[in-house]
Protein 1
Amino acid sequence: MKTIRKLIEVMRQKMPLKSLRLRIFAIVLVAGLVPGLIVGVGIVQNYEDRAVEHRISTVQNQLKIVANHLISNDYMANYRSEEQTYRNSRDVVDAELEMLSNLYEGRVMIINSNFKVVKDTYGISQGKIMISEEVIKCFQGENLSNYDPEHGYIEMTTPIMDTTANAGEQEVVKGVMLTSISNGSIVAMMEMLNRRVMIIETLLALAIVTLAIILSVMMTRPFNRITQAIMDVNAGYSDASISVPDYAETVHIVDAFNQLLARMRALDQSRQEFVANVSHELKTPMTSVKVLADSLLVEQDVPAQLYREFMEDIVSEIDRENKIITDLLALVKMDKKVQDLNITSLNINDLVELILKRLRPIARKKDVEVVFESMRPVVAEVDEVKMTLIMTNLVENAIKYNKEHGWIKVELDADHQYFTFTVSDSGIGIPEDSLAHICERFYRVDKSHSREIGGTGLGLSITKSAVLMHRGTLTINSVEGEGSSFVVKIPLNYIVS
Ligand code: ADP
């Protein structure tokens, strides 16, 4: 009992109710056992029907022969006659009847047309009247048989026909033979058959259970391998791609997992790169500050003018550090959820005017002319702070990377769905191979030049994130040495996902 309980417990652990293994096991078991059981029951049942049928027809044939003898010996008419010839022929027929009833462990009764029992091999009902539905039907010429498995006998009626009637004359039923025989031999045979079927079915069940266990374990093994491989990756033993090519399904799962793994690796790498870049970018101004301060400390009697110059440099480095930190914070904010957007309906023309008003003095310093061309009044649902950041960054870049006496053209247009904000410049342009990377964090075409003019390499990255948060697009066109154009396309109505 204990071992069975233990076995069930182990099975439950290995095959929880929802497991595929259990389902395969159950399906194989049912598919294997049910037909076997049905066939087994069918064989026994079929044997019983056939055996009863066969027994009835054999006995009926014998009875017909005896019936003929009854007629030929005129048994029905002379059953009481004491004449020697009649007695002899009656004894012959009686012996036949006796033999028949012994052979089939049964009882035969001969009933004459007055429903009187003229012969009963049991000797009980002789001389009595026997009227039953079967007997009456038999007198009308019907052969009836009835199997009663509960009481273990087969009952049948056989008409005794007058075969001596001439051709053309109607055959007359002179009497009826009412026979009941035991089904003992059929039952014995069926018991043996049942035993055999049971043995075969037990062996079959054992084979099917073994097959079900083997199949369920084998068919689910690839899934275990996937789980193990994923666990290995999770635990850090391996970071190689998984391969379990056993089924099309496992290939799909593994493909999806490998894609996820590749994405996570790329994310991890970009995070590492980002951390390395941030550290490097933050370290550079600090190194400059330290070099400047050290040289002031080492020198003795430093003239006040030099002190001032160095201090100015230190302040500008600190400003730079500050700008990097501000930009980084802005970037982190962009990475947050879209819910952080503060969407309001805004007059974009006014916003552009305001931004250009702030930036024009800086452009003027570089002798860059800024032109604003508005095709139509535009009102859109945007986040004002982020929109200001987008526009300021693009116009600032156009000033920073412009040539002397250059120009900037800012255009604002809209259709019924989107508004477009375009900043074109006559600046230094962007090399073709850099165009794809221009929006990456800390990417700068010319690092030293960008640093010189106070760039952090984060501006376009921030801009792109802000545009995407508005479900817009940023398109960049540029020819190196000739100029660039940045096109921002944003839906007029904010699309809530
Ligand atoms: P930065 O702070 O260095 O300007 P950005 O992310 O704004 O960083 O820009 C990334 C790089 O893209 C810049 O360093 C510069 O090389 C290039 N760039 C951006 N805007 C322009 C432009 N209008 N013309 C030419 N180059 C540009």
Protein 2
Amino acid sequence: MENKRSEVVGCETTESFNPGLLIEALKDSLFGKHIIFKESIGSTNIFLKRLAQKGAVEGTVVVADEQNAGLGRLGRQWFSKKGENLLFSVLLRPNLPASRVFVLTMIFALAGIDAVQGLSGLNVMIKWPNDIYIGQKKLGGILTEFSVREGDVQYVVLGMGLNVNWNPELGNNLLYDASSIYSETKKRISREMLLCNMLERLEIYYQKADGDMKERDGLFKKWNEKSLVIGRTVAIETGKERVEGEVEGIDRDGALILITAGGQRRKFLCGDVSVKMNFSKQRHL
Ligand code: BTN
């Protein structure tokens, strides 16, 4: 455990998250209406889904310093050291068909990378469908969960885990290469300021996602520009099959379009992607 703090960007960090800073900074915004902070919780997503079912307002945010049953995609777990990273979920009640919920994951990722880039200067990228990467290492992940009734989306919970001040070199037993903002910059970042910037960006993107075609095209273009896999040769593992090919792009439903080695054009809505370096060496990003 490190004792000495290095340079802090933004305001001073404490081991424990200070929700007061967030409440003050966001008081006039969509995500400042109802902010719940928990020192320890099972999962912010599960907690917020329960609140959503009881009628919680759009914009409700749940932040935790620690999760003891954090959820990842595809039924995995999400581990994070107490007091070092960002673990939070936000509630949206969009007027969207279920087929377009992916756009919310997309804007959440964009808000995340804008905030990380703005405070740390790191050039972070999005790895389809919902990971945040720096180089070939995972910095964070998004878990999107939603409820649909008679074809209408009732609510969407967007959850993000982002490695901020954690030092992975001090040991971790993750199965993938992980990094943190601290590990990349050797600077500690105010988690409160990072989250605040992210939620401000998210509100702007959320309005654009509900805007005209030009605004939505702009979002889509930005997301594609920040995509790590477009134009790369990848292997996608869906649980049922493993397919290799070159990524042509991501379509409006968020599906990955792959041109297979045999020249077929195939569409995938979910799966795990690994980028192929060459025939003998492959790296799971
Ligand atoms: C993934 O990469 O598999 C997605 C990870 C998402 C983790 C976050 S942490 C905050 C929120 N609450 C959860 O239980 N999961 C998400």
